From TrEMBL:
Keywords: ATP-binding, Nucleotide-binding, Transport. GO terms for molecular function: ATP binding. The keyword Plastid does not apply. Coiled coil: none annotated. It comes from the Bacteria. It comes from Rhodococcus sovatensis. This is ABC transporter ATP-binding protein. Residues 4-232 form the ABC transporter domain. InterPro entries: AAA+_ATPase, ABC_transporter-like_ATP-bd, ABC_transporter-like_CS, ABC_transpr_LolD-like, MacB-like_ATP-bd, P-loop_NTPase.
Amino acid sequence: QPAVRMRAARRRYELGDETVDALNDLDVDFHRRTFTAVMGPSGSGKSTLLQCAAGLDRLNGGETFIGDVEIGSLSEKARTLLRRSKVGFVFQSYNLIDSLTAIQNLELPLRLAGRKPERSRITAGLTRVGLGDRMHHRPSQLSGGQQQRVAVARALVSGPEVVFADEPTGALDSAGSRSVLELLRSVVDREGQTVVMVTHDPTAASFADRVLFLRDGRVVDDLQHHRGVPGD
Ligand code: ADP
Ligand code: ADP
């Protein structure tokens, strides 16, 4: 069973008398323990795909399963609860809370999910992303790459089924990008997680196992990578 499955997915936006099918009868499975990059021109539906697959937005037609749960059939409240336990999200701009330390930023999703923010779980998470010596730092005291690694640790702390990342390296220099991509790679290889990442950057996509190309709300190409050393 895939971590996430979408069938005949349609997401229609209506603006005045214009309609846009941001997702247009799209079928896709994201398998467990894989790292998928989603590419395609601006406006092809990449962000909409992530938002709908993560339960942040709703389809107008078709189905989205996270594990065995079809999320379109859930109430708003049930969908929010499912999202808090089963899905992690990483944004281009990190979206950490500036007034909180790294540890406190990881406590938040656990509190929101009604769980005890166990310190050992949080310090283990920050150590795994290479920030064991920065746990009491605030975002402004960290580099961009370090901030994004805190955001990845935050996305993982609840033990989700899948982590979605929307242009996670879009604001980073090449060293910062590399540190985040190597982390996402290891999250899949070592933790057995599932990662789905939107990117415009072919170098970033080369870290993935699979590259999905969207155009006009559909999948137009789906390449399995035989991964070499990035850059070769
Ligand atoms: P991408 O991430 O590939 O750039 P998006 O998923 O953001 O593409 O957008 C896909 C299409 O849906 C575009 O035509 C965009 O203009 C439209 N769209 C996205 N979000 C909205 C919205 N909230 N309201 C209206 N149209 C939208
Ligand atoms: P669980 O506690 O969910 O059964 P594990 O005991 O295997 O899972 O892992 C401990 C928890 O640490 C994971 O569930 C997850 O919340 C978190 N975690 C796993 N990998 C990472 C990582 N790379 N960075 C931060 N936190 C992680």
